[in-house]
């Protein structure tokens, strides 16, 4: 059996799914409602996604946004993928973070995903 945490998800973990991918809550949420969009196929590198998978991701990220708008009423979103250990990838099965953001959830959110290198976030 695979030890990959994103292969073979339990039914109760799945928020949405289609033929190519599924959505689940992040186990260590950055903010309330933090969701991961994950392909059913096990592969490491987002850049190796097929165009069909990319279409499915786009559709499901939008589905997550609509769901979170209705359930969590966030004020904004960060959507992102870590690709490779140098970029902080720690689970080597592609996953897209859909992170709802709330006004006041940090002191100065300017720069958003630029904050992957904290000293360069605010410019
Ligand atoms: Zn996997």
Structure description:
This protein is of the alpha+beta class. The chain has a single domain, classed as HIT-like (HIT family, subunit A), CATH 3.30.428. The chain is 17% helix and 19% strand. The chain is built from 1 helix and 5 strands. The chain has one helix spanning 51-71, and strands spanning 16-17, 21-25, 35-39, 76-80, 96-101. A 5-stranded antiparallel sheet has the order 1-2-3-5-4, covered by helices on one side. Strand 1 and strand 2 (21-25) form a beta hairpin. The N and C termini lie far apart (47 Å). The model has no long low-confidence stretch (mean pLDDT 94). The chain binds zinc ion. The site of zinc ion has 5 residues, from loops.
Short description:
Helices cover 17% and strands 19% of the residues.
Biggest β-sheet description: 5 strands, antiparallel
Kindly report how far apart the N and C termini lie.
47 Å
- Give the total of beta strands: 5
- Using the alpha-carbon principal axes, give the shape: globular
Considering DSSP H and I runs of 4 or more, what fraction of the residues is helical? 10-25%
Q: State the strand order across the main sheet.
A: 1-2-3-5-4
What radius of gyration results from the CA coordinates? 15 Å
What hetero molecules are bound to the protein chains? Answer: zinc ion
